[in-house]
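Notebook entry, structure prediction.
Reason for the run: the old model in the group folder had no record of what sequence produced it. Starting over properly, with the input documented here first.
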Amino acid sequence: MPRVVTMDRDRLQELLQARAQADQELEKLRTPMTILFSDIKGSTAYAEKKGDVEYMAMISRHHAILFPVIEREGGRIVKTIGDAILACFQEPVAAVKAAAGMQRGLVEDRKGRDETNQIHIRIGMHKGLGLIKDGDVFGDVVNAASRIQNQAEVEQILITDVLLDAAKSAGFECVKMGRAELKGKDEPIDLYAVAWSEAASQQLIQQVQTQYEKRFKDLRKQQDELEETFEKARDQWRTERRNLTGEIERLEESMERARQAARAQTSEDLQSEIRFQLEEAIRARQQLEEELLRQLKPVPLRPWNG
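New structure, fully documented this time:
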């Protein structure tokens, strides 16, 4: 049998008050922040192909290019996770500028390098309230930025709708790319890609065009399926209508035969009733005549004895 633990009411109240005070202190640590997550494309395959030494050299080059860009815009590098960077910004406009600077810095680094030694990253960003403790950051804003980064394409900067104004203030056009489910949100939020360069703008235009073409094909397919379903339904309706019309005609014929039979039966019954009434009238007349004859028959006189 499980042990039942009892607690004094005053002790319970004391613990509840301590919990409320701790929550208040924790709430004070929550602060607005913009989180940036970046990740290198194909780093695992690079390490397997090139080996650990060249992999670490590539990571060092990656850090040397990107860390100064983040810090120049007032960001703080919270930590690196393998080939990923987690950075935190107080100003969302500066965060978007840093993301664009990171992509541009790698564009310059790729010049003159063969494709196997080029570094390509994808970036995801989100703004919200987070907790800072011992130099690290915590909260849904961090998890959301990581999830958004996972949805980004290579060489893409993907942001949430709460950063859209910041991106425009930083001088960048944005294109809506879809929606994402985020923890704590009842509805999915819109995701936007930042056009951080002319090449990125052309890439976004191509992606949007591809999306619309796919959407058009899907809609056309749905239209064809609906038309096919409509034609089948119409053919079925016509068949059922013909069947129903035939059934109605057969029913009307049956009703007409029933009416004719009823009229014939009614006429026969009426004639029988008339004959019966006529015969009854004749019998009644005969009885009446016989009764009258009996009444008119002379009564014989008795002899008189005087």
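Summary: The radius of gyration is 49 Å.
The old model has been moved to the deprecated folder.
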